[in-house]
Amino acid sequence: MSGEFPSSWTDPTYVSTVVMVLAAGALLFYAALTPGNPAPETVGFVLLWISAPATVAYELARRFG
């Protein structure tokens, strides 16, 4: 079971997962504050803003971690 968890907090997979969860939480918080239903373009934009920081965090952790 211990093989499934990262051995370090600088593990790239762990870092990108944490960043993705934080980005998703921030976007959900923002969506809760805005009125109306999301358009398809908005959904694509949200997916971009969740995956882009996670990808950057993964690459930074992989190179410098």
Order of helices and strands: HH
The major β-sheet equals: none
Radius of gyration based on Cα positions: 15 Å
User: Globular, elongated, flat, extended or rod-shaped: what is the shape?
Assistant: elongated
Number of helices: 2
Q: What fraction of residues sit in β-strands? A: under 5%
Distance between the termini: 23 Å
Mean pLDDT: 81
Uncertain segments are none
Helix coverage percent: over 70%
Given helix and strand content, the structural type is mainly alpha
Number of strands: 0
Number of domains: 1
Oligomer: single chain
What does this structure look like?
With 65 residues, the protein is mainly α. It has one domain. Helix content is 72%, strand content 0%. The protein is elongated.
Structural key phrases:
65 residues; mainly alpha; 0% strand; transmembrane
Write the layout of secondary structure elements.
Layout: H1 12-33, H2 40-64
Please outline what is shown here.
This protein starts with 11 loop residues before the first helix and ends with a helix.
